[in-house]
Every structure is written in C-alpha cells, then in structure tokens.
C-alpha cells in the first residue's frame, strides 16, 4: 500500500480534479467542466462573449482581415485549452 512507503493524508472525497468538478449523487457521480470553461473565458477576456449554435455560417462571405493581427500564440493557447476540455476530459 502507498501509506506503507509514503506519508499519506486523507483529504476526503475529491471535489475538483484537473479542472473537473466531481459531484456525488444517489445514482453515482456527476462530472462538470463548467468551472474550467469559465476559467478559460476569464483568462482570455472572453467572459462576456455571446454563445452561438454553430460557430461557422456557410452563407457568410469571408473577407481578408484588415484589422489587428491575431496573436498566434494566444490563439493556439485558447484552442489548446478548448481541445483539452473537449478531447481529454
């Protein structure tokens, strides 16, 4: 057992793990990622963004960006955070 080799402290039931909220119910366990998504939105200042049903509307004609450049590292970080939420949790 681990406690024979290491000092172990019982912290009780887990409430959060890797950004996932864990709730015990009468039927089992419930996992919720909303706190992780809210943290991502707040970190990148997208907290007040409007949700949409489909992120891409095929009927909209796209034009070349003439405004500010997108910071590629920030964009990659946002996409990576969302992919983590979608793919690994």
Description:
A hairpin with a 2-residue loop joins strand 2 and strand 3. A 3-stranded antiparallel β-sheet has the order 1-2-3, covered by helices on one side. The protein is an alpha+beta fold and 89 residues long. The chain has helices spanning 2-5, 34-43, 72-88; strands at residues 16-17, 20-25, 28-32. It contains 3 helices and 3 strands. Helix content is 35%, strand content 15%. It comes from Linum trigynum. This is Reverse transcriptase Ty1/copia-type domain-containing protein. Residues 1-56 form the Reverse transcriptase Ty1/copia-type domain.
Give the low-pLDDT segments: none
Secondary structure: number of strands:
3
| Biggest β-sheet: strands ordered side by side in the sheet | 1-2-3
The main β sheet shows up as: 3 strands, antiparallel
The computed structural class is alpha+beta
- Overall morphology: elongated
Radius of gyration: 20 Å
SSE order: HEEEHH
Note the beta-strand portion: 5-15%
- The amount of helix comes to 25-40%
Give the overall pLDDT as a whole number: 84
Q: Tell me the distance between the termini.
A: 28 Å
> How many helical elements?
3
